[in-house]
């Protein structure tokens, strides 16, 4: 096996695919805690400062615990598969234990989930590292950009909405994925 150059060792998460990151994790070029930290740094830089994309209004407080658990599984040879350790996001309408589930609506801003939605449970079972909850219009009503967290902005052009009328519940998710905050979003 050839030795890696410095540039090969410093993995970029920008526009990386699930397979890119899964291979890097499997080959020991990075770990899940590092991927989570890089993702959160991008969120801090582009979502909270500079561009103010407003795609991820709620960060998962357990993100590093999930990432560390993934690294421990990998170290013991019990990886859960291709999603194990991969950073991702979920939209504000999916229930995740202990987190608010407002579905973008001011009426549900303080509603806390007491169970995981089926999809969230499956992502967790596969070892996916959920970074946070993505912004969405109230109750997934596309074109309504007055949700509890405001609207997500386009990472490509500040003059345009992410999708003016067809955005539905995924405008924050689309912004987050396009800005490489997480590899995929639900």
From TrEMBL:
Source organism superkingdom: Eukaryota
InterPro entries documented for this protein: Amidase_dom, AS_sf
Pfam families associated with the record: Amidase
Domain Amidase: start-end pairs: 52-185
SUPFAM superfamilies assigned: Amidase signature (AS) enzymes
Protein name: Amidase signature enzyme
Species of the source: Aureobasidium melanogenum (Aureobasidium pullulans var. melanogenum)
Lineage: Eukaryota, Fungi, Dikarya, Ascomycota, Pezizomycotina
